[in-house]
Amino acid sequence: MPPRRPFPDMPSFPELPGRMPGLPPAVRLLIPIAIVAAFVAATGVFGCFYTVPADSAGVVQRFGRAIGLAEPGLRFKLPLGIDRVTILPVKRQLKMEFGFASSGATNPDQASAERTQESEMLTGDLNAAHVEWVVQYEIDDPIAYLFHAREPGPTLRDLSESVMREVVGDRTVDELLTVGRQGVEVEAIAKLQELAGDLDLGLRVQQVQLKDVLPPTAVRRSFDEVNRAQQEREEMINQANGEYNRVVPRASGEAEQRISSAEGYAIRRVAEAEGDADRFRRLLAEFEKAPDVTRQRLYLETLADVLPRLGGKVILDADARQVLPLFPLPGLTPGALPPGGAAAQSPERADGPAPDRTPALRRRGSE
User: Are residues 195 and 276 in the same domain?
Assistant: First the structure.
């Protein structure tokens, strides 16, 4: 009785032979071995060649030990895991970002998931600041980069954060916001490169650049008000200094001018007083020699100096009794005085001006 089929409606297929007919048993045993050998050979042939990009270098390891570097181009290695090549971008500038992250990053160590924690810092004047910066570096020694540190990228990130906190802690927040930025960058790159060299990370730090230095979000408004007040204070100080520089030199110049004028006036007055005193001494000496003559000469000289200033004048004899016949004299009527000083107002002779008798009187007095 034939066996009962579980699915009567299913079509039946011919049964495959359990053994390959016509092949000896030894050949049938070598066929799987040959297939495996062919697969291994193909894999080895295709795995013997690799390509190193132009901006990279390959670290060749044989049985796990580094034996050299592979230059850019098509290269050969021993297959089946004997040689292993690690390609590193030694000619490309890599960067790490702290406090922010740019899109399209190809470096796995470029940004961190803890951006807020790594950027919040305390300054030297005990102010909180949100500091963002960038570290640019390159792989200087590929073998040291692979074998001297387990995770050189995260290690460099930790070193950068530590150095930046140390440098920021030595400065005030005003220096970070204004004139101290360049000093922070220079000091940070020097310390970071020194630490990377001591740890032999195989990295060379090329640049440390500060981006934004801001107060924390919770106190940013108050911080802006403080900065605004400081700016107004500086502006008022500058205005006061400008007014000082404008007024004080002018006042100093006027003071010097007045002092010089006073000194000149004092010198002039002293010289005049000394001259008058010397003149008086000479007159006194002459007066002591001839008192009457000197007295008369002084009287006449005084009259010669005073009378021309009096304008129109009439000199009468002491014995004259009748004055009315003399009036009206020419030149004394109202509005008839000629302008021009005392000389024009003095009585004149018909043939010319009246002669000056003062020298004659002087000569007579001296006789």
Answer: no
